[in-house]
Amino acid sequence: MKTFGDTRRPALRADPRGGGNACAPPVRSPADARQLVRHALAALGPLPTAQVEDLLLVTSELVTNAHRHAGGVTGFGIGVGRDRVTVSVSDASGEPPLYERQGDLRPGGYGWPIVLRLCREVTVDAGPDGKTIHAAVTVDR
Length: 141
What we know:
Strand content: 15-25%
Largest sheet: 5 strands, antiparallel
Mean pLDDT: 81
Structural class: alpha+beta
Helix content: 25-40%
């Protein structure tokens, strides 16, 4: 598994229940999360289209997985570094994501491998109250 070595705090946070940061709307769906990412990226200036699409896909996959497997998003953040943008998604499950090879034709199980493939670094911080996944995508600024 890839690791995330940059420990800077995310620049933008949203409480999924609507509280917390008054300027950040709650994250209730992948579309909400993608909108927050687009807003953060707009402040960076133009980025290569492929990098923006990778970051939006990673965002969608992480939020979808939190809803599908962990009861929903409990926290969301975006961190901007010199050469990376990191999306952090928290949920209430302490169970780490599973990476299972699909041997049959059953649906699902593709999001986590997509995240691992597109990201420069990925870490999972798990504890008794849930986990946070930090996924960093390289950007050319």
